[in-house]
Specification:
Layout: H1 2-19, H2 24-31, E1 38-47, E2 53-65, E3 70-79, E4 82-94, E5 99-106, E6 111-119, E7 122-128, E8 131-137, E9 143-151, E10 154-165
Antiparallel strand pairs: 1-2, 1-10, 2-3, 3-4, 4-5, 5-6, 6-7, 7-8, 8-9, 9-10
Length: about 170
């Protein structure tokens, strides 16, 4: 019995040692998103169903996690003091696709896993076939994000957000 227990524990430690090795490719790819790491605060607008722009205040907390192999994002948007958007996301690198995966979780229980990619220093994520969000830094070093919808081959903006690093 002692030998079985010892062998089992030795196997467990050996497996743990193997799985604890850092994925340097994932670290390298996730580090490309370092431009959005930190705490951010600002405002934005989104197009409502009524066709009008509705403004909001936004905070984003972005941190590297798990030995810098994933990026954790937590965002809260408020309008007139009420929370209108409360979400978190986990961005990871998928070697098989040579792209990123954007896992999103919303306060209403909805969640999804979406394709994401870096294009010319901008981070794109696609929550739908005809919807994309693009995150970049503007000339002033501020977080600048737009949301766009594709209708018959033309992209229309429905969302914009500009945040300052705290």
């Amino acid at each position: 019995m002692k030998n079985f227990l010892f062998t089992t524990l030795l196997s467990l430690f050996t497996l743990t040692g193997v799985t604890a090795q850092t994925d340097t490719l994932a670290q390298s790819k996730i580090s490309e998103l370092s431009f959005i790491a930190g705490n951010w605060k600002g405002s934005g607008w989104m197009m409502g169903r009524d066709g009008e722009k509705h403004t909001f205040q936004q905070t984003e907390k972005v941190q590297f996690k798990l030995d810098n192999t994933v990026l954790f994002i937590e965002g809260v948007g408020k309008s007139d003091g009420m929370i209108i958007h409360n979400a978190m996301a986990i961005v990871s690198y998928t070697k098989a696709d040579d792209n990123y995966t954007f896992q999103s979780y919303l306060q209403n229980g909805r969640k999804g896993e979406f394709k994401a990619e870096m294009v010319d220093g901008k981070f794109y994520w696609y929550p739908g076939e005809n919807i994309r969000y693009v995150i970049s830094l503007n000339d002033e070093g501020r977080w600048y994000e737009v949301g766009e919808m594709n209708r018959e081959g033309t992209w229309f903006q429905f969302f914009e957000m500009t945040l300052d690093k705290e």
